[in-house]
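Ticket #4471: structure output looks truncated?

Reporter: J.K.
Steps to reproduce: submitted the chain below (305 residues) through the standard prediction queue, then opened the result file.
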Amino acid sequence: MKKENNRIKFAYFLEDWKFEGGDEVLLKKAKKIVPSEYTPEMAGHIFCPECCTNLSKSPRDKPKFSNGRFACFIHWPSYSHVECGLRTPKPEGMLYPSEELAKEAIEHGKLAIIHAFRDEPEHKDGGEAKPYDQSAVEELNGPVASFGISRHRGEKFELPSTISTIAGICRKFDENLSKYYVFPGSEIAKSLSSILVNVKDVTDEDEDPKLYYGEIISSHNAGINPKPTNLRMTGIKCNVRVKDFNLKARAAQQEEKGIGDDSKGRIVLFWGRITASGIGLCVEKLKWGEYALLPEKYNKFLVGE
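Returned output as attached by the reporter:
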């Protein structure tokens, strides 16, 4: 089971704010902190990014537990009655009381239905591929589809979907962490922070696609003579039980996304299946929209796990 500390990626810090009667809009503009940034003066003033109830740091005065795990944020037991997708045990997902409220969540940016990831970058009128750009529009309209995210068993909602990219998820990543997503092949709406899987937790092949992230430790053009058409092998920090783990994709495509020989230390997110690669593991044959570098300013939300 995935631990709660892996789901609460950050806390809001705001003095003199209270869950009872507090303005959530004001809280959402407050400073975001990760456990390593916590100081004793913040006690009683940090709040969950999803349910907005109080959080504590555990252990309170140390950076790690005795078993080596990094410190984390946990909910106050006094608010255990407040529903939250970041609380343990892991929930089955967000359910909505009506189709209208589900559509309203989509309109307000609290829910995203991803029908598919884009095969190729956006093309201009002249038919030329648009260079990869973190400011480019990353979502296109997808079909209206039926999803079983109703609180009433058996009922399904007809909801609009998008054709998206991982780069779109990486943009405003801190805000997206508490947003709910329905990924391709699923009908369950889950918060982004509960969906993310650290490559360091992967020990075997997995045919079911998931949203993974990992720290790049190396990247090189695998050809004898470096050419854009060669594979680029991007090594990702992996579990000690795994020999190595590589993201394999054409050099030109990876380089357009900003992944190159000097990408060590950057975090990459990808949606895909884990397969064998020699005596190690890999992800390969990714579509254009299925992977992206996380902007460095968001690294703190995923490091130390």
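Triage note (M.O.): checked the attachment and the full token line is present. The CA atoms of residues 130 and 203 lie 37 Å apart.
Status: closed, working as intended.
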